[in-house]
Write a sequence for this structure.
């Protein structure tokens, strides 16, 4: 068994109002059940981070990435399953109807577009001390300010 961390790609999808898209994970998911999350997932064998980013956005929302605005950050964490991961998260623009994402059946139950002042909602259903998704969101909004959006 490999001791290398699993690699993940995440998309912070941005709309024209400077909000970021989040979706709630199904309560039946093994990792982070019933919590808010960015779009993304694990790299498949032989896949680059960018390829996974494009694939995951389409699989989880039905949208297609039109522009990568920049890297938000790389985050190391250990999942509920005890496996270490490195997640690379990017700010992206997408093509598609932003009011009607096609959530992946069985994996996500709802979605929200959040403004910067609303990030506290991301703490819902998270264990105390698990502020990773909120940290990613805050970093995403900082990155948006840096690029002037």
């Amino acid at each position: 068994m490999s001791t290398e961390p699993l690699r993940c790609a995440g998309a912070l999808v941005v709309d024209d109002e400077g909000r970021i898209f989040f979706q709630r994970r199904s309560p039946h998911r093994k990792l982070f059940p019933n919590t808010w999350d960015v779009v993304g997932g694990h790299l498949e064998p032989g896949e680059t981070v960018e390829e996974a980013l494009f694939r995951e956005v389409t699989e989880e929302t039905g949208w297609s990435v039109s522009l990568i605005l920049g890297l938000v950050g790389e985050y190391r964490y250990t999942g509920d399953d005890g496996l270490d991961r490195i997640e690379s998260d990017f700010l992206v623009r997408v093509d598609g109807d932003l009011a009607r994402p096609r959530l992946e059946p069985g994996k996500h139950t709802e979605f929200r577009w959040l403004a910067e002042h609303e990030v506290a909602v991301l703490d819902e259903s998270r264990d105390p001390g698990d502020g990773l998704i909120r940290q990613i969101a805050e970093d995403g909004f900082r990155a948006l300010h840096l690029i002037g959006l």
